[in-house]
């Protein structure tokens, strides 16, 4: 049934950590393969209401407009009837090009909201394909669908979206400290594509080792809630992938300032540190809320002396999101 005037839909999409690729060699017929984790915060929240004309407001509204225009265009090519214009409000947005999946989550949230307003029975994978998401990794799509810790199976030739092959709740007692450099963006768009094409072939033996680390160390440790062993596996995966991408991003980690903070955290015995996707966002994994708050305070104090003259880093506490994206209806109180 049509939405009454003033009624709309609100969609919340979690950020994600992309923790590494498993097989950049591709010799078995599938390439990439990823591991990752959905986060409680930051997140993207989109509200959509039927409207007489298209209207956009909030942060990244220019990006929302491009996504919306593209979505309506591809819906028309697919002969799907999307006749209702929408008023889109971006209530919250994941920082752009920070390595936290901002583009995919914004696209999926907008696509889901527009589909609901127009009564289109499109699944999240269908929306992702229409909006050209998931070209290399399925972690963002899986984060929206199910949340938790995720493994995707990579892309086969001419494949559109990597299949999700493993999903498990992330322990609630494991906390994450994000380290963000607000003035720096990671590689994206044509620069990202060029970086992939410029890198040398990935050794098959190293791809095999990464898959073994995931299957025989990281996943069992996750199930058994063994943060020390899980951290050892994650650190090894991060080192291998970071070093492979170093020629494209300048070093193992994109930001030298964040790299210094991660190194300091490691010296304090933190179980796992790394960079999400192309960064620059870094992360540290610890057990317990007290531990993560202590780490945050120590790094803030350390940065005051060690990073003088550098950018002001943000140290943000978050946890895993084990539920995925959410959608709810609402009534505009002004109508």
TrEMBL record:
<dbReference type="InterPro" id="IPR004422">
    <property type="entry name" value="RFAP_synthase"/>
</dbReference>
<dbReference type="GO" id="GO:0016301">
    <property type="term" value="F:kinase activity"/>
</dbReference>
<dbReference type="InterPro" id="IPR006204">
    <property type="entry name" value="GHMP_kinase_N_dom"/>
</dbReference>
<dbReference type="Pfam" id="PF08544">
    <property type="entry name" value="GHMP_kinases_C"/>
</dbReference>
<protein>
    <submittedName>
        <fullName>Beta-hydroxylase</fullName>
    </submittedName>
</protein>
<dbReference type="InterPro" id="IPR013750">
    <property type="entry name" value="GHMP_kinase_C_dom"/>
</dbReference>
<keyword id="KW-0808">Transferase</keyword>
<dbReference type="Pfam" id="PF00288">
    <property type="entry name" value="GHMP_kinases_N"/>
</dbReference>
<feature type="domain" description="GHMP kinase N-terminal">
    <location>
        <begin position="74"/>
        <end position="138"/>
    </location>
</feature>
<dbReference type="GO" id="GO:0005524">
    <property type="term" value="F:ATP binding"/>
</dbReference>
<dbReference type="InterPro" id="IPR014721">
    <property type="entry name" value="Ribsml_uS5_D2-typ_fold_subgr"/>
</dbReference>
<dbReference type="InterPro" id="IPR020568">
    <property type="entry name" value="Ribosomal_Su5_D2-typ_SF"/>
</dbReference>
<feature type="domain" description="GHMP kinase C-terminal">
    <location>
        <begin position="218"/>
        <end position="299"/>
    </location>
</feature>
<keyword id="KW-0418">Kinase</keyword>
């Amino acid at each position: 049934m049509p939405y009454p005037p003033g009624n709309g839909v609100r969609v919340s999409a979690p950020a994600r950590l992309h923790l590494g690729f498993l097989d950049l060699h591709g010799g078995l017929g599938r390439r990439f393969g990823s591991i990752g984790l959905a986060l409680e915060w930051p997140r993207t929240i989109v509200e959509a209401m039927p409207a007489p004309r298209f209207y956009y407001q909030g942060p990244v509204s220019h990006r929302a407009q491009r996504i919306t225009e593209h979505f309506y265009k591809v819906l028309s090519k697919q002969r799907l009837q999307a006749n209702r214009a929408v008023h889109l409000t971006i209530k919250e947005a994941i920082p752009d090009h920070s390595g936290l999946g901002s583009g995919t989550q914004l696209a999926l949230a907008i696509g889901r909201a527009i589909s609901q307003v127009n009564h289109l029975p499109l699944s999240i994978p269908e929306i992702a394909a229409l909006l050209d998401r998931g070209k290399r990794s399925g972690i963002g799509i899986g984060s929206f669908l199910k949340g938790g810790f995720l493994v995707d199976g990579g892309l086969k030739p001419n494949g559109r979206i990597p299949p999700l092959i493993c999903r498990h709740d992330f322990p609630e007692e494991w906390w994450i400290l994000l380290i963000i450099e607000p003035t720096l963006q990671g590689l994206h768009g044509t620069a990202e594509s060029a970086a992939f094409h410029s890198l040398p072939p990935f050794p098959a033996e190293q791809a095999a080792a990464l898959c073994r680390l995931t299957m025989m160390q990281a996943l069992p440790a996750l199930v058994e809630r063994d943060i020390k062993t899980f951290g050892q596996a994650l650190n090894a995966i991060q080192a291998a992938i970071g070093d492979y991408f170093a020629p494209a991003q300048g070093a193992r980690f994109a930001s030298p300032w964040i790299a210094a903070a991660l190194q300091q955290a490691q010296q304090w015995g933190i179980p796992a540190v790394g960079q999400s996707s192309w960064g620059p966002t870094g992360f540290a994994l610890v057990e317990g809320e007290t531990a993560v708050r202590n780490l945050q305070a120590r790094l803030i104090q350390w940065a005051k002396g060690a990073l003088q003259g550098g950018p002001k880093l943000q140290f943000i506490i978050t946890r895993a999101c084990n539920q995925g994206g959410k959608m709810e209806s609402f009534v505009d109180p002004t109508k």
